[in-house]
Amino acid sequence: MEMIRGIKERRSIRSFTDQPVPDEVWQEIVSAASYAPSWKNTQICRYTVLRAREKIDELASAAVMGFEHNAEILRNCPSLVVLSYQNGRCGYERDGSFSTSKGDRWQMFDAGIAAQTFCLAASAYGVGTVILGIFEEDEIAKRIHLPEQETVAALIAAGYPNETPQAPKRKSVEELLRLEENQ
């Protein structure tokens, strides 16, 4: 199956060419990513694509909590996608109560689904990505003027790959899967 092949072949890319990703390709990627499932179809995720070298370098210097590996990736990516989500919608009922004991953690769950869907779509268009989780979300939000009702969920460095990494060793199905007996 083509989809299974895409899942198995997608890699985290940390080295990119200087070639910019055209606006039309970003639109196609986000169009595909919009089909990611979400809590009660709330579709809370938003994608801010930064392409200004100065802005990406500013975030690399000021907003990755001193984690030099992420700063280096940002300094070398032609585009940075700030994945954010709208607060107070996912996991909530109309009266503001939580639907489950998970509280507002459903927001990050939906953001994770959206991030992977975005990265798979990007891969289908030849755009490499790596999801970065070490950053100062308030600093990012302030520096990109994120709307007040949104929270930064992840950074996704993106661009055309300058590498083809091998797949890391995977755990066996036997280690990952538990099948209960039919009764």
Written description of the protein model:
The chain has 183 residues and is of the alpha+beta class. The protein has one domain (2-176): 3-Layer(aba) Sandwich (NADH Oxidase), CATH 3.40.109.10. Helices cover 37% and strands 16% of the residues. The protein has 7 helices and 4 strands, in the order H-H-E-H-H-E-H-E-H-E-H. It has helices spanning 2-9, 23-33, 53-62, 68-75, 106-124, 137-144, 173-176; strands at 45-50, 79-86, 128-132, 150-159. The protein has a 4-stranded antiparallel beta sheet, sandwiched between helices. Helix 2 crosses helix 5 (106-124) and helix 3 runs antiparallel to helix 4. The radius of gyration is 18 Å and the shape is globular.
What is the CATH top level name? Alpha Beta
Order of helices and strands: HHEHHEHEHEH
Main sheet? Answer: 4 strands, antiparallel
Q: Shape, please? A: globular
What is the CA-atom radius of gyration, in angstroms?
18 Å
Distance between the termini: 32 Å
The average pLDDT value, as a whole number, equals 94
Order the strands across the largest sheet as they lie in space: 1-2-4-3
CATH architecture: 3-Layer(aba) Sandwich
Supply the number of structural domains: 1
